[in-house]
Amino acid sequence: MSAFLRLACMCALACVRGAPAVSDAPDPCVDAVGAAEKALTKINQDRQQGYIFSLHHLSNYNQAPHPKGSAGVIYFLVMDVLETKCHVLSREDWQSCEVRQTHETPVYGQCKAFVSISQEQKDVRLYSYRCRMRPAPASKIGRLCPDCPSRIDMDSEEVLKAAKLSLEKYNMESGQPNYFALLNITRASAQGGFGMFYFAEFTIQETVCANSTDISQAPNCTLMDCEFAHKGLCKGSHSVARGREYITVSCKIFEPEAAEKEKERHLLGGEHGHGHNHSHTPPAPPKRPLGTVVYLPARQQQASLPPLPDSPPPFPSFTEEGLEEPPVTLLPLRFPPKECSVAHSHSTFIQELFDEDLDFNQHILN
């Protein structure tokens, strides 16, 4: 073949590769993964307690045209997820949140969601979801990191003491105008060494009392019950070692959504020439969650995995969830090929947690 002919062939091949695909068929991997990412965002926005979930892997999925035709596509998604360090009160994007590492006792699980997405990929509606989560086994972490902190009961006396003392320290040093009170303890761990160290993560909320309130009167302070009340997430620790007491604390206060909206209105309307002496209205009653999150105990024993079924299981029924629209009949679930993988954590330890857990390997709704 002459050099000219070879060059002509190369140019033709380049043109073919560079030309847009003539098929209008969407890439099922791109669509399914995109649906999972959007669904998880909606799930995190719907939740009022706990930590934001991050998408680890799209386990399997199903899709069908929406009964209304032009409305788009309905998906049933089975998503392997990981707990992040961001609390849902922060309203942060899950893709910007850090998942917990091995020494921090990762929490892993699975969310199964029913969602519709418009053809323009803009309107996303979450119908229902169920998530089940559990912490990594302490024995598995201990083999890799014997000196790392271990999870303990959040109701233990030492954990409550650590939260109380660290919150007192925060109120004394924060410079906040109002006193903050404890809402919920969200994580607890302990670590030995030259003394016992107790660690607590907990949420707090602004009260009606000034920060100068005598600490003996603090238990009488009521929570600020309005849409402008601030909440936050704190990490504190308490220990007594070599005859000395150590207390640490760091808190992140979240700006309430109502305050952000008020700020936007003022920026759009310019200076209004008035002070902020208006009365704060009570917050709207909390909306009914669209789904549930259940926390299971850590798995104690490693089990052998059953073989994968020869055919995918049938699509589950959501009739008991009380959906506003009737469920549709869909094809069997699909097992995404490896190129559909969206694992945001490439840790071998994390993948082993999912691979060894029968509860998250059956690919059915239970």
UniProtKB/TrEMBL annotation:
Gene3D superfamilies: 3.10.450.10. Residues 18-132, 143-252 form the Cystatin fetuin-B-type domain. It is found in: Secreted. GO terms for cellular component: extracellular space. Pfam families: Cystatin. Residues 262-289, 303-322 are annotated as: Disordered. Residues 306-316 have a biased composition (Pro residues). Keywords: Disulfide bond, Glycoprotein, Repeat, Secreted, Signal. The keyword Glycoprotein applies. InterPro entries: Cystatin_dom (IPR000010), Cystatin_Fetuin_B (IPR025764), Cystatin_sf (IPR046350), Kininogen_Fetuin_HRG (IPR050735), Prot_inh_fetuin_CS (IPR001363). SMART domains: CY (SM00043). Residues 1-18 form the signal peptide. SUPFAM superfamilies: Cystatin/monellin. CDD domains: CY. The keyword Disulfide bond applies. One of its GO terms (molecular function) is cysteine-type endopeptidase inhibitor activity. Residues 262-274 have a biased composition (Basic and acidic residues). This is Cystatin fetuin-B-type domain-containing protein.
